[in-house]
Design goal:
Length: 487
Amino acid sequence: MRLYLYDSASRGKVPFEPADPGRVRIYTCGPTVYRYAHIGNLRTYLLTDLLVRTLRYLGYATFSVQNITDMGHMHQGQLELGEDRVIAAARAAGKSAREIAAFFTEAYFRDCRRMAFLPADVYPRASEHVPEMISLVDALEERGAVYGEGGYLYFDVTKAPGYGVFSGAGLGEGEPADRTGEAIHRHKKRPEDFTLWMPAEPGREFRWDSPWGPGWPGWHIECAAMSLKYLGSEFDIHVGGVDLRFPHHENSRAVVLTATGKRFAALWVHAAHLLVEGKKMSKSAGNEHTLDDLEKGPPGAGTGFSPADFRHYCLTLHYASPMNFTWDGLAAAARARIRLQAAFRRAALRETSGGNAAAALSAEFRGAISDDLNMPRALAIAHKAVRSGIGGDVVRSLAAEWDGVLAVGLLSESGAERERAGVGEGEAEEVPPAVEAMARERESRRRERDYPAADALREKIRAAGYDVVDAAEGTAVLRKIPGTRER
Ligand code: AMP
Ligand code: ZN
């Protein structure tokens, strides 16, 4: 079955055609690590996870890159303006910008694990790729697309082929294409031209030497340089929130097209925003919630919600539809998740039956996710499956297969699988995503009867302190090896 995705560049659903079917290459604009990710950010990163999981379900191997923007926002000027309380607080506690970035990078990875995101293959840090950014500016200079003075370098957008067509932002309509909010635009010829390099103000911790003096790179060149390094000038899919379409994606794209003459990403997938009472969730709007907030629950309620509940909540809506967050909506999604799990567990305990019905349901599920990642429809098929009278191992393997995409724990916790596998209560803790990924990989090697590869993976899983227990036909359960420490 063919995967169709909505491509924001051509503004239509297109059949997905990877350049190299053996390795679908994906780039996602990652977090700026100066604060905790809010659940709006996480909804956008969920899109990458659903995309990767769907591609794997359909039999593709994936190579996914997500950058970590660990500078830029940590700007002394903004700090002095009191723009960032988190940094201000951390500084007050005697922390450096690097420590702040390291802290929130870890916090972000923890959120990703809690959201059951498959880890990216590479998480390049912007601060570790400045030489690549400098070479890219060099390449742009050679093409006559750079001007500036006093240590400021700008990209001349009139030198980029078809600038503005991608986002529909047309020349002259744009906002000043810079994220720092500083009064540094005095040398710019037009509002869309954007900063490639800025001089470092005294006391700036993140600074690098360059042919243009000590300074630091602009935001758009960061993603351009990191995607070029890890994915090349032509890769398959670029992911981000819809607000990044302009200026960020228009500009990263302009950089790569101008420097290399190549296409850059073949397909652009954008996630719609998470809103609160019609307003985009953001730190500056003061309406943000984090996963920790969800776990605490609404003020005064006394009970909270798990990251899996939030994941389920997100799956009830298509990624391209704006989602209005409400506590009632989350509560309803949490109840629906529990009911769905219970129904799967009950069905799994019945006699094995319904092989043909399961094959048809499986095809429907595949059709739903192949239709631009239609998770609401995929969930509806899961509900339909438990009402269809199928039972036992048939249900178990459907659940395991579908949860490889949905990852909401269709047969989780006290479920039949754990009992069958003899995994005790205390051992049913969260398995690190990297271990889960190896287990899934081992499953597919095993299905292809590549036993040496499957065994090698099992050894790697064991080295990480886990073992796979082959529970029923085609299903495997991960169990922590007692007495080993998580790594
Ligand atoms: P930032 O850390 O601000 O660079 O944002 C990280 C990612 O989250 C980007 O892809 C944004 O487009 C996305 N994003 C920001 N706000 C929201 C929101 N309210 N809902 C969904 N995605 C968002
Ligand atoms: Zn980016």
